[in-house]
Specification:
alpha/beta, binds the ligand N#Cc1c(-c2ccc3ccn(Cc4ccncc4)c3c2)n[nH]c1N, transferase, tRNA_MeTrfase_TRMD/TRM10
């Protein structure tokens, strides 16, 4: 998979050189390109924004630099991901779908957003998904892009050493994950549930599934299937 990010804050993504994504890049499983939108401007001040038509507060990102950035990154296989508060909520299912794509381009807006014609133009050349990280307001697309890249990157085949560990995580099977414990068996007078020390694999699996249902009922009843 190749990922390209277009942003006015390229240094923001330096952290992607380390941890899991860093190793995936070293192993050639994921290629990453970070592009400064200002490199696609030609005025002395490298201007990327202007006042909104129709008036209103704030500034809008100019279409010209974005057009050149898309020209430099798009391929017929690209999925353009536009982080926006007006997007479809990001989910684990979306992360799974996007992890199977060959090329993702993240367009990180700032100010009041990107001129709508840029998104419309991108949709004439590639698949475009306008995605929201959640129902709260950020100052730009970079934080959302970082979160999405982490959620997607860890699902790219070959990135995680033990893919089985992915199947029991929250949201993977529609339920929240069961509680986890490690040594010591007693800590500050709190002990690990006996079933986990029993060696009875069926009893452990049943207990863990019941814990998933109980936690999901308590914390996220909206995730429960109708028959639960
Ligand atoms: N994904 C996502 C987001 C964003 C988001 C994403 C991109 C941009 C670009 C500019 N802004 C600032 C802004 C623009 C319009 N209205 C309010 C704030 C952004 C916010 N906010 N909240 C989310 N869940």
């Amino acid at each position: 998979m190749r990922i390209d990010i277009v942003t006015i804050f390229p240094d923001f993504f330096g952290v992607l050189d380390i941890s899991l994504l860093g190793k995936a890049r070293e192993r050639g499983i994921i290629e990453l390109g970070v592009h400064d939108l200002r490199d696609f401007t030609y005025d002395r001040h490298r201007t990327v924004d202007d006042t909104p038509y129709g008036g209103g507060a704030g500034m809008v990102m100019r279409p010209e630099p974005w057009g050149e950035a898309l020209d430099a990154t798009l391929t017929p296989e690209t999925v353009v991901i536009v982080p926006t508060p007006a997007g479809v909520p990001f989910t684990q299912a979306a992360a799974r779908e996007l992890a199977l794509e060959k090329h993702l381009v993240f367009t990180c807006g700032r100010y009041e957003g990107i001129d709508q014609r840029v998104i419309d133009y991108a949709a004439s050349r590639a698949r475009v998904r306008e995605i929201s990280l959640g129902d709260y307001v950020l100052n730009g697309g970079e934080v959302a892009t970082m979160a999405m890249i982490e959620a997607i990157g860890r699902l790219v085949p070959g990135v995680i050493g033990n893919p089985e560990s992915l199947t029991e995580e929250s949201h993977e099977q529609g339920l929240l994950e069961y509680p986890s414990y490690t040594k010591p068996s007693t800590w500050r007078e709190r002990s690990v549930p006996d079933v986990l020390l029993s060696g009875n694999h069926k009893a452990i699996a049943d207990w863990r599934h019941e814990q998933q249902l109980e936690r999901t009922r308590r914390v996220r009843p909206d995730l429960l299937p109708d028959d639960q």
